[in-house]
Each structure stands twice: as C-alpha cells, then as structure tokens.
C-alpha cells in the first residue's frame, strides 16, 4: 500500500504540469484559437523561471517570470494570427521551433547552475497519515493550486458573464461581433492568459518538478497537453482527470524499473506517448461526440465586417 501511495502521489505531481498547460490551451481553444506553440512557450518559460529563481532565490519570482514569458510569446502569436491573419497551425509550429532553439541557446550558462534549497511543504500531522499522507499531503502548493484553478475555471466559464462571452466568441465570433463585443481583443486576452498558464507549467518543470535546466527538458509535455484538451472534450474537470491519468502512466515506468520489472527501458519511456496516441484513436472513433463539444470556430480566422 505504501508503494501504491507513493506512485499515486508522484502521479499527482507529474499530472500537475500537464493540467496547468492544458487548462491554458483550453482557454485558447474556447475562444476559437489553436496554439501549437505550447512546447516552445514552456521551454522558454522553464528557462526564465529557472534563471530568475537562481538569481533571486525566490520560487514565486521564478513562477512569475515563467508566466510573463509565456504571456509575452503568446501575445506575439496572438497578434500574428488574430490581426495579421497568419495560419494558426503554421504560426504555432514556428513558435515551438523558436522556443526550442532560443531556450537551448540562451540556457547554456545555466546547465550547471544550482537552485537554492527548497522548503519543506509537507503538511504537519496530515503528511504522517498512513497511505493518505504520501498520497495527498506531501506536495508542493502548486499541486493544490492546480486543483483550485480547475474549479475556478469551471466557475468562470459556466457561471459568469465573461465566461459566456468567451465561449460565444469561440462558437460564433460573427454573432459576438454583431452584438458589439470586441472579438479580437477577447481572443488576444484569452491567448495571453493561456500562454501565462503554459509559462507557469514550464516554470514548474524546471523549478519544482525537475529542479534543473537542460535543453529540451519539457520532453513533449506541451504536445501531450494539446492532446489532453481533445481527450477532455474541452471540459476543465476532464482535463484534470486526464492529466492525472497521463501522470500515472509517466510515473509507472519509473516504479516498474525500480521494482526490477524485466522490460526494455525504451518501451517504458515511450508509454506516455503511446497512451496519448491510443486515447486519441479511441476518441476519434466517435467524431460526433467531439463535434458536439468542440468550439465551432476553433482554428478559423475571423475578419470583422466580412
């Protein structure tokens, strides 16, 4: 039971990265914008978060830097696709390539840098409980913030006027424009908010999840986060559950290796990506289900007055 509790606890930690990034991408896609640049934004934010934490000794400052970098890159992407009407998919891929190359170049001086000693975030008394302690109460506060963020996003999207406007822009930007809503500005704000969350996820990777900096350290998590939004059919609660599922698959490989399971390490390493492909294949078997939940204008440009 103790081993299972540790595995579940590690899965929650690993799933937090995917959940935060996926929630950001969900905000983007609810407004009708597809951003394939998540991987690049996360890499640049991971570098920024790590560098600022090393220089200042503050984890919060590192998270703030990651969010700022993510929002900035997303803002550039937003201007290109919303005002200049560049292709969303090509621009997103370009952002990923830029982020991977720029972070590798700019991060050479931080490869051997050391973060300050981390604080003990275990909850007194609760962390000592058998099974539940290591499973639920020995995590970084960002794990709990992620859960709160999920429920906050559910409330925002389905219980507030601003959330209704955002969803209406994603469903029918022409109708929202006819009612007087600034569709382009709403989409830009949604893209930047999503970019900030992707940046937070990237900073969490380098500051907490794997406290170091190496080139390409997000290792495809941005792409898995993109797949998760479809897997969750654009529902925040399903995003959280899906992220924990993929986190479980990711951590299972290490626990199997530690247990001496005689399986090639290459097979275990590819398990998260194989799970992503399998899930997408299963979902694609029911295109009607996806079509019902998918924002109607997703990936489509909007031209005011046309």
UniProtKB/TrEMBL annotation:
The entry's keywords: Cell membrane, Membrane, Transmembrane, Transmembrane helix
Gene Ontology molecular function terms on file: transmembrane transporter activity
A GO CC term attached to the entry: plasma membrane
UniProt cross-references to Pfam families, sorted A to Z: BPD_transp_2 (PF02653)
Membrane topology listed for this record: Multi-pass membrane protein
Compartments in which it is found: Cell membrane
InterPro entries: ABC_transp_permease
Residues annotated as transmembrane: 6-26, 33-54, 60-84, 91-111, 141-158, 188-207, 213-232, 239-257, 263-283
CDD domains: TM_PBP1_transp_TpRbsC_like
Protein name per the record: ABC transporter permease
Taxonomic source organism: Hydrogenophaga crassostreae
Taxonomic lineage of the native organism: Bacteria, Pseudomonadati, Pseudomonadota, Betaproteobacteria, Burkholderiales
């Amino acid at each position: 039971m103790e081993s299972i509790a540790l595995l579940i606890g590690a899965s929650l930690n690993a799933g937090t990265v995917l959940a935060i990034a996926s929630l950001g991408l969900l905000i983007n896609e609810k407004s009708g914008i597809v951003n394939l640049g998540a991987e690049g934004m996360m890499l640049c934010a991971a570098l920024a978060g790590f560098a600022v934490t090393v220089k200042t000794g503050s984890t919060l400052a590192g998270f703030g830097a990651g969010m700022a970098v993510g929002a900035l890159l997303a803002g550039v992407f937003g201007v290109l696709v919303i005002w200049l009407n560049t292709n969303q998919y090509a621009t997103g891929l370009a952002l990923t390539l830029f982020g991977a190359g720029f972070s590798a170049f700019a991060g050479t001086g931080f490869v051997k840098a050391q973060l300050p000693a981390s604080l003990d975030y275990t909850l007194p008394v609760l962390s000592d409980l058998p099974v539940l302690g290591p499973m639920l109460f020995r995590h970084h506060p960002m794990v709990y913030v992620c859960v709160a963020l999920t429920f906050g996003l559910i409330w925002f999207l389905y219980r507030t006027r601003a959330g209704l406007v955002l969803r209406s822009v994603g469903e029918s930007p022409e109708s929202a424009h006819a009612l007087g809503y600034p569709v382009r500005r709403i989409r830009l704000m949604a893209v930047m908010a999503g970019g900030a969350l992707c940046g937070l996820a990237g900073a969490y990777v380098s500051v907490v999840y794997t406290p170091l900096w190496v080139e390409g350290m997000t290792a495809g998590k941005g792409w898995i986060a993109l797949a998760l939004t479809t897997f969750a059919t654009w529902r925040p609660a399903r995003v959280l559950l899906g992220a924990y599922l993929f986190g479980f698959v990711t951590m299972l490989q290490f626990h199997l290796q530690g247990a001496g399971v005689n399986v090639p390490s290459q097979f275990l390493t590819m398990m998260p990506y194989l799970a992503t492909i399998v899930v997408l294949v299963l979902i694609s078997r029911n295109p009607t289900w996806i079509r019902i939940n998918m924002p109607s204008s997703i990936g489509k440009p909007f031209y005011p007055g046309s």
